[in-house]
Structure formats: structure tokens, C-alpha cells
Write a structure and sequence with these properties.
Rossmann fold, 35% helix, 11 strands, 269 residues, Dihydrodipicolinate Reductase, domain 2, single chain, alpha/beta
Length: 269
């Protein structure tokens, strides 16, 4: 049985992860932590997560419980994630990271740290979204330069980063499929007199409002026709289930960086 510690255990994702881990036949929740001063510190992890009394108290210091687990699941904030990854590397504990908004410097540090522990890092752990990644890349490679490519993403009003990590990943794989660099051709906003759209650009536009869990639509727009690919998450459970599957998978892997294509066997899809 793989023992799991949940970072940000009282957050929106942390609670659903706790439920999904609790339901997984090969996983056991053994701990959870929150930021110092969080009102949930000291409360029962299972009761907070909605899966019943567990006898496990939420703590504010991951170092105090890291020895109890095999895998840390982290969907917190990019600055916190790197601190947790340093601790995981020190104690050689596996990680599953779904945090978005990681900077290039943080990703580089994470790759370096993963020499000391196995880590799954992905902007989205939904099975459906990872299939979407693969299909969008194939469509981009087939349609090529004859079609304009645009991405629109929508999330709840509390999301801190924009565009979403999923939208950026879509943009990256679509750009790669047509030999472009998203850093050079990505257009994240349009306003005012901007001139005609260039052939190379890939637009990524953001909507924030209400309690939208997550929606992503990819547009391939040609002369006289338009193709659309959409994924709409109706709850956070798909992401949490994916994280649980990743935790069970990563526990027995060698040190290094992995993604959900590895976990789901989609590398050659």
C-alpha cells in the first residue's frame, strides 16, 4: 500500500484529492499539511476532505510528517511547490505535482531536484485533457499553416494564474507540431489597433468568472470552415482521480521527471 501525504490538504483540490486517494485500492492517506496560520490546521483530515473521521490531524510543517509517506501530492502554489520539492529531494520521497504557474527557473530547478526523487509533473491530470493534448497536436501537424490556431480557456474567479497551465501546454504542443516556438508566436491578449493577425501567431485568451471548474477550446480556423476541440470539466474529481493514479504509478519508478503521458501510456498515441 502506497502512503500518500497531501499538500494544501484543506484547499479545493486538496479535499477532492483526499477523497480520491481514500477510494483507491492501492493508496492510503497518511498525512496532510497546510500553510502556517491556516484555520484548518489541527482539524481532522478525513472530516475536512468529506470522507469521514480519519484520526489524522492537518499540520503546518511538512517536515514533521514527511517520513510517514511514500508520495506527496501537491496542487498548491508555485512558490510553495518548489519548497516542497526541495524537501522531497532531501528525503527522497516521490511527488505528483499538478501546480500550474511554475516559472521556467522553477521548472529547471525541479528537473535538477528530480535526480534525487521520482516526480510526475503535469499541468492537467485529467485523462480527457491528456487525450486532448495528443489530438490537438495531431490536428495541428495535419492542418499546418493553412489554418489559424486559437485557444480559449475559462476558469473560476479565484484562479491566480493566467493563461492556465493547460492552455499553455496546448499552445506549446501545437506550436511544436508546426515547428514554431510559443514564446515567439504566442499572443495572450488583444486590445486596440493591433493590425492584421499574422500567419504564425497562436492566440491564447482567458476568461475568469464564477465557479467554472475548467474549460478549454482549441480552434483551427481556415477559409470557409472551422474545427473545434473542447474539454469541459464539470468537477475537480477528474483531476483528483488522475493525481491518485499518478501517485500509485510513480511510487515504484526510478528518479527523474515524468508526465501524464508516461502514467497513462500515451507517449506513442
Amino acid at each position: 500500500m502506497t502512503k500518500v501525504i497531501i499538500a494544501g490538504a484543506a484547499g479545493r483540490m486538496g479535499r477532492r484529492i483526499g477523497c480520491m486517494v481514500n477510494q483507491h485500492k492501492d493508496l492510503e492517506v497518511v498525512g496532510g499539511f497546510e500553510r502556517p496560520g491556516a484555520p484548518e490546521v489541527g482539524l481532522d483530515l478525513g472530516e475536512i476532505g468529506g470522507y469521514g473521521h480519519s484520526g489524522i490531524k492537518i499540520v503546518d510543517d511538512p517536515a514533521a510528517i514527511i517520513g510517514q509517506g511514500d508520495v506527496i501530492i501537491d496542487f498548491t502554489f508555485h512558490e510553495a511547490t518548489i519548497k516542497i520539492a526541495r524537501l522531497a529531494a532531501e528525503h527522497k520521497k516521490a511527488m505528483v505535482i499538478g501546480t500550474t504557474g511554475l516559472t521556467n527557473e522553477e521548472l529547471a530547478e525541479l528537473r535538477n531536484l528530480s535526480q534525487n526523487f521520482p516526480c510526475v509533473q503535469a499541468p492537467n491530470m485529467s485523462v480527457g485533457v491528456n487525450v486532448l493534448f495528443k489530438i490537438a497536436a495531431k490536428m495541428a501537424s495535419v492542418l499546418g499553416d493553412s489554418y489559424d490556431m486559437e485557444i480559449v480557456e475559462a476558469h473560476h474567479r479565484l484562479k491566480k494564474d493566467a493563461p492556465s497551465g493547460t492552455a499553455l501546454k496546448l499552445g506549446e504542443i501545437m506550436a511544436d507540431a508546426v515547428n514554431r516556438d510559443l514564446d515567439e508566436v504566442g499572443v495572450m491578449a488583444r486590445h486596440g489597433i493591433i493590425g492584421e493577425r499574422t500567419d504564425a501567431e497562436i492566440g491564447i485568451q482567458t476568461i475568469r468568472g464564477g465557479d467554472i471548474v475548467g474549460e478549454h477550446t482549441v480552434y483551427f480556423i481556415g477559409a470557409g470552415e472551422r474545427l473545434e476541440l473542447s474539454h469541459r470539466a464539470q468537477s475537480r474529481d477528474n483531476f483528483a482521480k488522475g493525481a491518485a493514479v499518478a501517485a500509485a504509478w510513480i511510487a515504484s519508478r526510478a528518479n527523474g521527471m515524468y508526465d501524464m503521458f508516461d502514467v497513462l501510456g500515451l507517449q506513442d498515441f
